[in-house]
Amino acid sequence: MNTSITNPQGEKIDYRFHGDASDKSKIVLIGHGVTGNLDRPWAEGLANALAEAGYPALRFSFSGNGDSEGDFRESTVSKEVSDLGAVIDAAKEAGYEEIIYAGHSMGGAVGVLRASSDDRINRLISLAGMVHTAKFAEVEFGMETPNEGFMWEDEDCPLSSTFVNDMNAIGSVLDKASDIHVPWLLIHGDADDVVPIEESSEIYAHANEPKKFVELPGVNHVFANEGLAPMIDTVLVWLKD
Question: Domain total for the chain?
Fold first, then answer.
């Protein structure tokens, strides 16, 4: 895939394509979590493995993150849902038939919201997916003052009131699970100290069939080290099934 992708605000979305560009039967779109970007090791590892297995993949940075255009302070779940729509638009315009979206952490919440209202997503993968957005903002950033503090003390990631207000307005994506009617895979490590594995268990209980929930023992939030291979293997087996 070789095209420029811009969101509704006219901001260019940075991406990397992996695989056989002539295969238009399907494509896996890979979205990251809060403070992340397309170069996260789990995203690159997954994209490479998908391409080797015959699944074209596209990993991208949401606007305001990585080398995508935009202001990080405006990088909210709601805006990223719109960004994902723009990436899907580009994939469809390029001729791809089946759209599979794999979202990590906050990118998982983005996927739930997009898939619940956009029937162009044919399969959904949630990787340590965030469910309760307001709770996440309070637990992780409640000690910081919006527009003054930073996310996890990273000065490159200012905590904006725009972000906090959006997280609180959404509250949770749990009630959107019943609006998703495509095959859905949820993967979560039981050593995740950022998004509790119980969130995946909870939304899985509200999801429609066909669905699958896989718990990875000893695996952390970003599927680091020994956690990467079982995550990738789980995704590949599910896609083939």
Answer: 1
